[in-house]
């Protein structure tokens, strides 16, 4: 832009070209409506003359086109190319009107004339010709198609096809297995040329090899811990990674022996160590109660030995006091109901209490509070903490990752955050396949735990906006990626399943043995799969204070610099507890920690040491690069509007919302980046010598900010497309049924919870 | 570990100077900064029963302006700085024979969402003098003494009283024109004693018309122009209710007068917004009031369902109950809902949106409630804020407040009860607080559209109560004239405009002509925690508006780089070519195109 090149794309490049006459003349009067297919994608059924409903109230904006079901997605191709300005991110694999089959939550067919409706699942019959198809999506969109003018039989077939293909019988039928196989062979040469790095451009450690763990041990100076390969070939546990970190004093032989007593063989696994040596450990329950005491004694004493002060660890049983999987699922169903399904105006009056009744924000708060209490134990009291959960694969994932996010600024960088998800979710065996219910086999196992975690992260980000390298748009896009079955990250239940399926996959697709799975079936962290380099800059937080954060650069780990400890002296000074006051205290704490949400200030009562720790912490200005504890007063835990309301056009603020400040911040940071590079060029040249004739900005594709610094008074900078939903657009993505009068209206109105397959199935024809 | 609690008002007040006179005598109070004209009245050892830290020993100082407290205990640093104007009630708690620790003392209720409790020694009537002096200085009007605004000797470089000149403001709006004229009929407050002296009325209406209309409008508050749309000439007109009464009286002059308003921009229908719920409007007939009926041809009447001052007062009281001293923990959102505070905000905002929408669509509107000084002021000023970007500037907001609130007789004295001991007065109500809350809601939804920041709104609300400035004193202009407010007291805007930079929003992007429509939905309305919950020490920990702070830091960084680059370029050019050295004036150095390009204004 500086060197007089033609203007590089601004956000406007995602809009249709402005008034180009060329476009008009090129366009034939009747376009052939061809879907954009990925490699390996095939059309299974299609129907013409379908109307996509854009607005609930009027049909003026409705689009005519073709509805297509492929083995990957539901696609709608409008007859007329969109005239409206689009503000959303341009997805490289999905069009504006596309929905991946894995993103479908419910497929509902309606016949208005007969007053019938039916939720379709796999292999079902449909006894009526649908006049309408409503797709309830897992990313909270609601998409509606009308078949008034379409052939009734073909409409029926498409609906059945969509229902059928969204219920794959086997995980290997998920489209990713087809797509990545083809992609591997098609892009072989390109890959050889560019030698793609593991985990995307940022080199996110995948934690499937011991070196990733080694680096983490070094980074946190956890000298009394070692990488152990006792689980190689998943010998002791199918859900633990092959390499885990354990106390240095425990021998492989012992671990092997202990593992048989633990649920699923999940022996205690090290997560992270604090600067003074206290460690965070996670483990499953011991199944053999007779052996429990003995084994625990040994393991706990090994953990104690790994602590520099030889202090005993506190054990917290997370499933006592935190909400259950079912409770979390039901809370999410309710808040989703309130935010997107219920009619907008009717929910206004009781909005706040409805949100409260869903309990979603309560749960967000409980998890944050639990994590903050552990921060106190690890940092304030410098004791190691063992998170125990029956299976160690759900609540422990949330809590351990939140604790690390609060304590360690490394995880607030983009790479750090992604490695945290790899470490505490993917490789720790969170059952993504079941929790996401990709195969729609068992609704009872479905649970939005990862979404809950993302919401907790957003709360932290909302309170400390400069502490994170990434944005809420990033978190939202990450949550959407769960429903695209093309990345290895969210597909599997366990590391063993991952390894097995990827080995089979490699065999079937003739991928030479020894190839890195991260290469032939990439993780979501390779964002270039989904978005252009430019669009990925929407992930960058211009406010981020990133100095001193640990970064893996050129394969080398920079030392993890932590800020000075501010509170330790206070806490040690005031804590009346013995320096190692251990298991007994753990028991006591457990009861008070979890469910009991006491007022933040109860001066009359005796202040507990943890209250004191928090009070001291909050009396200091927060250090963006130190420990961060969220404010947990209910007034400070908010609804994540971008996530829950982005599709709701009534809630969309035109020309407003947080994007307006984001825009200004990123322009300013872009300007600073340019200045910095100019200064660097000056400094590069030796004094006295002639500087480069015209110091130029970094090339546009290397600029970090989505919005570029612009000359003043440039009319093109007036951000007309900003709304509170940016970078998403509500247009056509949330179309509730018009409820007045119709029998279906009555039905949907009466439904007080998100329609479950069961309730609706009983209610069908 | 020290935990400084609530040294609040000082942080935003640049004008306080330190008096070191008695520094030796009173260690603890040595660093109290007094205003010129402020005098020490009494100091005493007390125990402050802090709701956050428990009992705190320390010293209290009463001046003729404030109550100041500092703790002795270095472990818990607590200090309080409360303008006496913010006190609504002082009570004795416990008696000489009360049992229990700290049960004898004073209980102080404040208008700004907090309560204070001090305990004293039980022997020797130790609280008597403190109580009496506090009572006398907190409620000077009840004791026949002057408000502190009249004693304040501060000096400011700018005179805030000159911020608003009615004729100038009308001229800015393009008035008078061939449809609207300026009248001085009220220059002696004879037409209406609660209106300003300068009014804009339909060109075709005569002074006689105005007088006749005044007889049919409650308290003579006739329909007058507040704002005119530059392009479509649609207007916002404000007034009080018509005196219809039980018998359904009519007044031809009033009917014709309203039709003149409609005619002025040739629209077919005039919309009358009655801010009240329709039942209230009907009930007002019993006391002689009412609303415009079918006899008003070419007019439609819309009720906006905004509740009266009593409902608003009770609502804020409920809100205080759930946020002070501790935030309601177990059922926060439903408790918040049951205060209805946000619901009221929603109704006020959506009323203003309707007004703004109508006017930007080219239709003139008339807005009234009962007397036209509470809800009407809220609606007209908020609609003007949406329609006219000038009012979204720092000075524009001051003009808006001076015009729609102060000059048009919002009864600040009655609503706030400045210097008055009668804390149960039914006339008190947080109508202006509610308005500022609405403004804050708008700034939240459009963070780049306002030139001022949250700090200004907080400062305005602090001085709504403080009585340090004359700005919010008295009920109307005639009373202000009588009491010589503009000559004997200082304007709040003198303070603000002398230290503007701390009230400026760095994100501000001027966009004239854009109408802002906030979304008046519970999905977006938020509790203004940095105001209502600000006494909670945990809130104070968080930087005020961290996003704004960060932006300021980045701006400073940018400027530093620019300066460095300029220096480098200057030294370069001086060494290579003397021609280029000439262009090294600040902001120039246009030798390279990127430099010019980088001159983005702040």
Automatic annotation (TrEMBL), chain A:
Signal peptide: none annotated. One of its GO terms (cellular component) is membrane. InterPro entries: MTMR12-like_C (IPR022587), Myotubularin (IPR030564), Myotubularin-like_Pase_dom (IPR010569), PH-like_dom_sf (IPR011993), Prot-tyrosine_phosphatase-like (IPR029021). Residues 207-644 form the Myotubularin phosphatase domain. It holds the Pfam family Myotub-related. Residues 683-709 are annotated as: Disordered. Belongs to the protein-tyrosine phosphatase family. Non-receptor class myotubularin subfamily. This is Myotubularin related protein 10. It comes from Oryzias latipes (Japanese rice fish). The lineage of its organism: Eukaryota, Metazoa, Chordata, Craniata, Vertebrata.
TrEMBL record, chain B:
Substrate binds at residues 308-309, 369-375. The active site is at 369 (phosphocysteine intermediate). Residues 571-594 have a biased composition (Low complexity). Residues 339-400 form the Tyrosine specific protein phosphatases domain. It is found in: Cell membrane; Cell projection, Filopodium; Cell projection, Ruffle; Cytoplasm, Myofibril, Sarcomere. GO terms for biological process: mitochondrion distribution; muscle cell cellular homeostasis; negative regulation of autophagosome assembly; phosphatidylinositol dephosphorylation. Residues 160-532 form the Myotubularin phosphatase domain. Belongs to the protein-tyrosine phosphatase family. Non-receptor class myotubularin subfamily. This is Myotubularin. It comes from Oryzias latipes.
């Amino acid at each position: 832009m500086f060197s007089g090149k033609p203007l590089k794309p601004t956000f406007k490049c995602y809009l249709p070209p402005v008034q180009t006459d060329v476009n008009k003349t090129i366009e034939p009067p009747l376009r052939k409506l061809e879907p954009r297919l990925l490699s390996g994608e095939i059309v299974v059924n299609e129907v013409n003359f379908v109307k996509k409903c854009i607005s609930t109230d009027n049909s003026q904006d409705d689009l005519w086109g073709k509805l297509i079901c492929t083995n990957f997605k539901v696609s709608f191709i409008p007859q007329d190319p969109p005239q409206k300005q689009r503000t959303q991110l341009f997805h490289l694999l999905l069009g504006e009107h596309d929905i991946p089959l894995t993103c479908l939550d419910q497929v509902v067919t309606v016949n208005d004339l007969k007053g019938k409706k039916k939720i379709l699942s796999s292999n079902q019959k449909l006894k009526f010709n649908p006049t309408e198809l409503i797709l309830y999506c897992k990313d909270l969109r609601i998409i509606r198609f009308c078949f008034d003018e379409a052939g009734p039989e073909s409409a029926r077939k498409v609906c059945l096809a969509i229902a059928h293909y969204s219920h794959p019988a086997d995980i290997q039928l998920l489209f990713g297995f087809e797509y990545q196989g083809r992609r591997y062979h098609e892009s072989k040469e390109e890959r050889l040329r560019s030698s793609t790095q593991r985990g995307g451009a940022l080199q996110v450690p995948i934690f499937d090899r011991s070196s990733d763990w080694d680096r983490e041990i070094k980074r946190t100076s956890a000298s009394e811990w070692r990488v152990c390969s006792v689980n190689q070939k998943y010998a002791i546990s199918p859900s633990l990674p092959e390499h885990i970190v354990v106390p240095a004093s425990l021998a492989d032989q012992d671990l092997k022996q202990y593992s048989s007593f633990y649920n699923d063989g999940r022996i205690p696994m090290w997560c992270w160590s604090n600067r003074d040596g206290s460690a965070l450990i996670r483990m499953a329950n011991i199944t053999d109660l007779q052996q429990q005491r003995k084994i625990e004694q040994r393991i706990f004493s090994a953990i104690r030995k790994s602590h520099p002060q030889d202090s005993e660890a506190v054990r917290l049983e997370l499933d006592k006091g935190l909400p259950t999987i079912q409770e979390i699922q039901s809370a999410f169903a309710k808040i989703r109901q309130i935010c997107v399904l219920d009619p907008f105006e009717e929910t206004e009056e009781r909005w706040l209490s409805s949100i409260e009744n869903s309990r979603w924000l309560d749960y967000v708060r409980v998890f944050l509070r639990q994590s903050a209490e552990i921060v106190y134990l690890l940092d304030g009291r410098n004791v190691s903490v063992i998170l125990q959960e029956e299976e160690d694969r759900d609540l422990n994932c949330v809590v351990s990752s939140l604790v690390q996010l609060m304590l360690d600024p490394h995880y607030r960088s983009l790479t750090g955050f992604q490695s945290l998800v790899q470490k505490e979710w993917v490789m720790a065996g969170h059952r993504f396949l079941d929790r996401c219910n990709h195969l729609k086999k068992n609704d009872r196992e479905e649970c939005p735990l990862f979404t809950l975690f993302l919401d907790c992260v957003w709360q932290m980000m909302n309170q400390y906006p400069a502490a994170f390298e990434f944005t809420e748009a990033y978190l939202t896009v990450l949550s959407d990626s769960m429903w695209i079955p093309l990345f290895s990250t969210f597909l599997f239940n366990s590391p063993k399943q991952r390894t097995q399926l990827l080995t089979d996959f490699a065999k079937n697709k003739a991928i030479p043995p020894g190839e890195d799975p991260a290469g032939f079936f990439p993780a979501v962290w390779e964002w270039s799969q989904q978005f252009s380099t430019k669009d990925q800059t929407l992930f960058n937080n211009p406010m981020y204070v990133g100095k001193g954060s640990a970064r893996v650069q050129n394969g080398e780990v920079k030392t993890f610099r932590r800020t000075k400890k501010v509170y330790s002296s206070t806490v040690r000074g005031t804590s009346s507890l013995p320096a190692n006051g251990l298991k007994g205290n753990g028991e006591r704490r457990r009861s008070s920690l979890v469910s009991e949400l006491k007022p933040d200030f109860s001066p009359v009562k005796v202040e507990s040491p943890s209250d004191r720790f928090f009070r001291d912490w909050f009396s200091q200005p927060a250090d963006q690069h130190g420990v961060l504890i969220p404010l947990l007063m209910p007034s400070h835990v908010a609804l994540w509007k971008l996530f829950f309301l982005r599709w709701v056009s009534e809630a969309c603020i035109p020309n407003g919302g947080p994007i307006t400040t984001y825009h200004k911040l990123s322009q300013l940071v872009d300007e600073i980046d340019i200045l910095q590079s100019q200064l660097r060029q000056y400094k590069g040249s030796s004094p006295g010598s002639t500087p480069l004739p015209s110091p130029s900005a970094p090339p546009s594709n290397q600029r970090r900010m989505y919005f570029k610094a612009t000359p003043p008074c440039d009319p093109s900078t007036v951000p007309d497309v900003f709304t509170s939903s940016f970078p998403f657009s509500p247009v056509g993505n949330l179309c509730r049924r018009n409820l007045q009068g119709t029998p279906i209206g009555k039905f949907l109105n009466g439904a007080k919870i998100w329609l479950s397959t069961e309730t609706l199935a009983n209610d069908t024809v | 570990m020290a935990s400084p609690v609530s040294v609040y008002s000082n942080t935003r007040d640049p004008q306080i100077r330190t008096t070191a006179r008695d520094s030796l005598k009173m260690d603890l109070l040595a660093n109290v900064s007094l205003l010129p004209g402020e005098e020490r009245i009494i100091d005493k050892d007390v125990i402050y029963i802090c709701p956050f830290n428990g009992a705190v020993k320390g010293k209290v100082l009463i001046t003729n302006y404030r109550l100041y407290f500092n703790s002795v205990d270095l472990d818990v640093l607590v200090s309080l700085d409360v303008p006496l104007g913010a006190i609504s009630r002082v009570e004795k708690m416990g008696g000489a024979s009360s049992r229990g620790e700290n049960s004898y003392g004073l209980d102080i209720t404040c208008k700004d969402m907090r309560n204070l409790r001090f305990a004293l020694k039980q022997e020797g009537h130790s609280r008597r003098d403190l109580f009496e002096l506090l009572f006398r200085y907190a409620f000077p009007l009840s004791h026949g003494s002057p408000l502190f605004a009249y004693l304040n000797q501060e000096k400011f470089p700018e005179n805030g009283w000159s911020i608003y000149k009615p004729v100038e403001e009308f001229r800015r709006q393009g008035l008078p024109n061939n449809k609207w004229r300026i009248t001085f009929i009220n220059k002696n407050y004879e037409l209406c004693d609660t209106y300003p002296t300068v009014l804009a009325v339909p060109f075709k209406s005569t002074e006689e018309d105005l007088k006749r209309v005044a007889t049919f409008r409650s308290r003579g508050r006739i329909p007058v122009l507040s704002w005119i749309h530059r392009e479509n000439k649609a207007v916002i007109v404000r007034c009080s209710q018509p005196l219809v009464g039980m018998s359904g009286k009519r007044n031809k002059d009033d009917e014709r007068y309203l039709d003149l308003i409609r005619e002025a921009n040739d629209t077919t229908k005039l919309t009358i917004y009655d801010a009240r719920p329709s039942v209230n409007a009907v009930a007002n007939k019993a006391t002689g009031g009412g609303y415009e009926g079918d006899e008003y041809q070419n007019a439609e009447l819309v009720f906006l369902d905004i509740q009266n001052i009593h409902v608003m007062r009770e609502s804020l009281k409920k809100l205080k109950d759930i946020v002070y001293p501790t935030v309601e923990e177990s059922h926060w959102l439903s408790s918040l809902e049951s205060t209805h505070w946000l619901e009221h905000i929603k109704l006020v905002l959506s009323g203003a949106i309707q007004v703004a929408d109508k006017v930007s669509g080219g239709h003139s509107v008339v807005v009234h409630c009962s007397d036209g000084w509470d809800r009407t002021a809220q609606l007209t000023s908020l609609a003007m804020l949406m329609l006219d970007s000038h009012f979204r500037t720092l000075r524009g907001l001051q003009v808006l407040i001076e015009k729609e609130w102060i000059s048009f007789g919002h009864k600040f004295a009655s609503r706030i009860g400045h210097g008055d001991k009668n804390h149960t007065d039914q006339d008190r109500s947080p109508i202006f607080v509610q308005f500022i809350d609405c403004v804050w809601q708008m700034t939240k939804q459009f963070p780049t559209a306002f030139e001022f920041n949250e700090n200004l709104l907080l400062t305005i609300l602090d001085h709504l109560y403080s009585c340090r400035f004359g700005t919010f004193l008295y009920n109307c202009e005639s009373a202000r004239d009588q009491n010589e407010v503009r000559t004997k007291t200082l304007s709040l805007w003198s303070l603000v405009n002398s230290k503007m930079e701390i009230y400026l929003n760095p994100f501000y992007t001027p966009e004239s002509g854009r109408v802002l429509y906030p979304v008046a939905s519970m999905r977006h309305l938020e509790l203004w925690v940095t105001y209502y919950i600000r006494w909670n020490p945990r809130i104070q920990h968080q930087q005020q508006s961290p996003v704004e702070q960060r932006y300021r830091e980045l701006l400073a960084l940018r400027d530093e780089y620019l300066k460095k680059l300029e220096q480098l370029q200057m030294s370069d050019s001086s060494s290579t070519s003397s021609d280029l050295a000439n262009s090294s004036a600040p902001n120039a150095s246009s030798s390279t195109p990127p430099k010019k390009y980088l001159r983005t204004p702040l």
